């Protein structure tokens, strides 16, 4: 049984994590709860335990159930191993990391309900020291996973099946695309911005997969290698050559729209892909990107693809609820959202 000191420490860490994930200062949270900033600081440092009334107000202010504060901690430290965006403020990066960590803890708790259902296999470890070698590595991973050359219909579902924990993060900061982690026990995790267009999400997730599989850091050269891996994994070079034909002077706008829909790779990434494999000259590539910039399509392309959302965690919760392993209240706590009534739309448990 936990001692009072350890209980205070765990509750304090929970309060701090929830506060940081919502980007609140000590003073801002204190005002919402009706206590002093000094009191919040003492709670977070484990020097004092909030009473039941304060705990309920903390839960309401932080948008969590009170059970969150006493839930066992499964992930003590989760720091981004890759893709540290220099343009992303430290405060927002910390909030994103904390949200991903909290979601991952709930995911691991859900898996514990079905010990025999722990997903996936060990991710292959491949090598690539140049962008050209990244092409070969992407094709080798497709071969290992028996994917052939067909378009990957749902990248998120594929990675979930392979044991990667894919975590959607709710942030409106479009400077954050995605980042990869490994937990202390080696579990691979990819957190991504759930509010970006689907094609941008897919490339970012494939980029982070490259970091995990190739063991890359975040230097400019390694970022280029991960980018090349992502493009090649989503559209292998033989497929790109088949779709685009031989050497091209330019790629048509409608052609790019259709290719984006078929392969889930953005129009601009298709332009880069054509240049990478020698079908589009440097000059032609620059001209096309200038046109995209002039039309205002660099940041927001037309006809964006819908987002891909992980569903394995929610399926396991639905199964546990149906088998009466957990209550509705527990299901809502694990999912971090309310459940719809029976007979409602199939989009929620």
Automatic annotation (TrEMBL):
SMART domains: HTH_XRE. Residues 15-69 form the HTH cro/C1-type domain. PANTHER family: ANTITOXIN HIGA1, BLL7220 PROTEIN. This is Helix-turn-helix domain protein. Belongs to the short-chain fatty acyl-CoA assimilation regulator (ScfR) family. GO terms for molecular function: DNA binding. It comes from Ammonifex degensii (strain DSM 10501 / KC4).
